[in-house]
Design a protein that fits this description.
about 180 residues, alpha+beta, Endonuclease, Chain A, 2 domains, four-stranded mixed sheet, about 55% helix, elongated
């Protein structure tokens, strides 16, 4: 980028430069903070062909198509994409709790009023987070939504069981709603 004759790197290129060292976390953090958009990242990659590490960058950008906000969410989205479900899932789905707080499902199937969460210990381990998560889940249930949590470790180390459970949860929810 150029501004008054001075050349600067773009935020998208800076994120791409961080990928070899930080992997998908560089993309996730930038998207969560709304510093860049996925199309801007793709454009920056197109403008820098032949760079070492571009195959990794391209693979991670492709894997970011559902706009994960963390590595755990990236895994959750991968598992949901691998399943063949009758309804599509949406990511970072906004929802308003009864007290007016705005929350976001990591992934949701709106037609089933079903949400999935990918919980890492870093953000969900402290007591306050534990309490907040339980309060949120009971509020969602009171509004007719079902929310299911998977730990990041479970998503990463038990992929077959993760997908099997997701399929069972979805099938159960379909029966529960009479669809």
């Amino acid at each position: 980028m150029e501004f008054h004759g001075l050349k600067f790197t773009s935020p998208a290129l800076a994120v791409l430069d961080l990928i070899p060292r930080h992997g998908g976390n560089a993309i996730d953090e930038a998207l969560r903070r709304r510093v860049v958009t996925l199309p801007q990242l793709w454009r920056a990659l197109e403008l820098t062909p032949g760079r070492r590490g571009n195959s990794l960058r391209r693979a991670l950008l492709e894997d970011s198509r559902d706009l994960p906000w963390s590595e755990a969410e990236r895994l959750l989205h991968r598992h949901l994409r691998a399943g063949e479900y009758p309804w599509p899932f949406v990511t970072n789905h906004p929802f308003t709790l009864t007290d007016g707080r705005r929350i976001y499902f990591d992934a949701a199937i709106r037609e089933l009023r079903l949400g999935f969460e990918a919980d890492g210990y870093e953000h969900h381990g402290p007591r306050a987070a534990f309490e907040r998560d339980r309060d949120r889940d009971s509020d969602l249930a009171a509004q007719g939504w079902a929310s299911h949590r998977f730990t990041a470790a479970f998503l990463q180390h038990r992929p077959e069981e993760t997908r099997s459970r997701m399929t069972s949860i979805i099938k159960h929810r379909i029966r529960e709603l009479g669809l």
